[in-house]
Write a structure and sequence with these properties.
Elements: H1 7-91, H2 97-107, E1 113-122, E2 125-136, H3 137-149, E3 153-157, E4 167-177
Antiparallel strand pairs: 1-2, 2-4, 3-4
Transmembrane segments: 21-43
Organism: Candidatus Nealsonbacteria bacterium RIFOXYB1_FULL_40_15
Keywords: Membrane, Transmembrane, Transmembrane helix
Amino acid sequence: MINLLPTKEKENLAAEKIKKVMIILWLLIFFFILCLSCILFSIKVYLKEQVYAQETLLTSFKQNSEIERINAFKAESGKANQIIKRFADFYEGKFCFYCLIEEISDILPEGSRINDFLASSEGNQVVVSLSGFAPTREVLLSLKNNLESKNNFKDILFPSSNWVKSSDILFSVKFKAQ
């Protein structure tokens, strides 16, 4: 085909064609940038949601571990409470050996000492056997009188061998405590 247009028109047509191509190229670049920004925005939203989900999951795990620790502590304290209750039940109504030792040490005369202490339970009474040292017969007699003066000591038995020596006496005594 033969183009019979003047050169000026040909240049105008070529300029318009270049102009249209440039507009199309700019529209394509704009569309590409728009699509790219939409994709990047979608990725950003997706990553934010994933981070939020992971944080929620981590918080849930922390709470679960706290709950597990609390439950373990409750179980341990429950076991300890049961043990303490068993001890309390066991010692309730039982004889107080500490009180017995304290009472014996209170009535022990000056200069005498206890070498052996043996206590055994018989029903609701405790049979106590003591052996020790008394410097004189008077101190031993004082111990006997002190034991007899206490209402919770019964059946006090001093063997006659205790009274043979007048000094440096190794004695033994047996009685029941209530």
